[in-house]
Amino acid sequence: MTNICTFSNRVAFVTGAAGNIGVALCRLLAAHGVAIAAADLSKDILEERLAGIKGIRAYKVDVRDPESVKTAVDSAIKDFGHIDILFCNAGVWNHTDVKGVQRFEQMDYGQWTNLLRINLDGTMNCCQAVLPHMIANGYGRIVNTASISGEVGLPGYADYAAAKAGVLMFSKTLAMENASKGITVNCVSPGMVAVGEPQPTDTTWIGRRGSADEMARAMVFLAADESGFITGIDLPVEGGRTLGPVNAAKL
Ligand SMILES: NC(=O)c1ccc[n+]([C@@H]2O[C@H](COP(=O)([O-])OP(=O)(O)OC[C@H]3O[C@@H](n4cnc5c(N)ncnc54)[C@H](O)[C@@H]3O)[C@@H](O)[C@H]2O)c1
Predict the structure, then answer these.
(1) Which residues are paired to 185 by β-bridges?
(2) Which one of 95, 150, 206, 215 has the fewest CB atoms closer than 10 angstroms to its CB?
(3) Per-residue pLDDT tens over the stretch 147-197
(4) pTM of this prediction exceeds 0.90
(5) Ligand 1 pocket, residue 187 CB under 6 Å
């Protein structure tokens, strides 16, 4: 039997590495022997949450700021020698001035731009910093964390949905631009991810939320050496949340 997820001496740069999905992703990458440059807003929090994971180094980054991204990427290349895999996973959906949802007409420009800067510009900044290095090496796997909100919309989160839709089309375009250079670019679109044990919900066909580990497995699959013929796709990991209405037909 051949393993379908192998990594030959690979280094991954992971943003949002201190978050729920980021920590699960780093654990799974480490279990596959991938060395990890883990990046997030706070180096202290990274080191606390990723303690005990082998082959990992922490880098402070604010993905909104191209200079900050370039500094972190350059440091990682200096420390590890190369970056083969990029996970643009940092993302924020909560609004700064209200908790949770907000109608679009009440959304101020600062809030809109902040969500766009983190989710869309952040992905763009990281890809722009890492791509020249991958092109020079003739190898790369880029896996961007989008969202089902970018596929079907999400009331109360017009800013976030617009940003994630941008991530999806940005990624498809990068996939086309870089296919001949040994670089694949794909997205994973999570939906309703639990922190800890997934709770039941009647809004997915599977009947529960997803786990961070389930997101990480899809991300690692797309990053593997064996996934070189998959590019430009969006892989929803959402328990059927974007299928037709749940319980539309009682069978
Ligand atoms: N949780 C869900 O249900 C869900 C659903 C769809 C998509 N997503 C996406 O999955 C990704 C990971 O989300 P999560 O659930 O782990 O959330 P999380 O809040 O646990 O983690 C997000 C991480 O991003 C980091 N971050 C925020 N702003 C940053 C910045 N400017 N620079 C660098 N890092 C920054 C945070 O510090 C945090 O560690 C995000 O892109 C999110 O949009 C999550």
Answers:
(1) 142
(2) 206
(3) 999 999 999 999 999 999 999 999 999 999 999 999 999 999 999 999 999
(4) yes
(5) no
Contact between 33 and 60 under an 8 Å Cβ cutoff? The reply is no
CATH of the domain at 74: 3.40.50.720
Asked if 141 and 7 touch (Cβ cutoff 8 Å), the reply is no
Judge whether 72 lies within some domain.
yes
φ, ψ for residue 85, nearest 5 deg: -130, 135
Q: Whose CA is nearest to atom 10 of ligand 1?
A: 145
Instruction: Give every CB contact of residue 198 below 8 A, 6+ residues apart in sequence.
Output: 208, 209, 210, 211
Low-confidence ranges of the chain (pLDDT < 70): 1, 97-99, 250-251
Q: What is the largest CA-CA distance in the chain?
A: 59
User: Comparing C-alpha atoms, which of 33, 146, 11 is closest to residue 84?
Assistant: 11
Ligand 1: does its nearest atom lie under 6 Å from the Cβ of 90?
yes
List the domain range (segments joined by +) for residue 26: 11-237
- In SS3 terms, 6-71 reads as CCCCCEEEEECCCCHHHHHHHHHHHHCCCEEEEEECCHHHHHHHCCCCCCEEEEECCCCCHHHHHH
In a domain, residue 4? The reply is: no
Atom of ligand 1 nearest to the CA of 23: 16
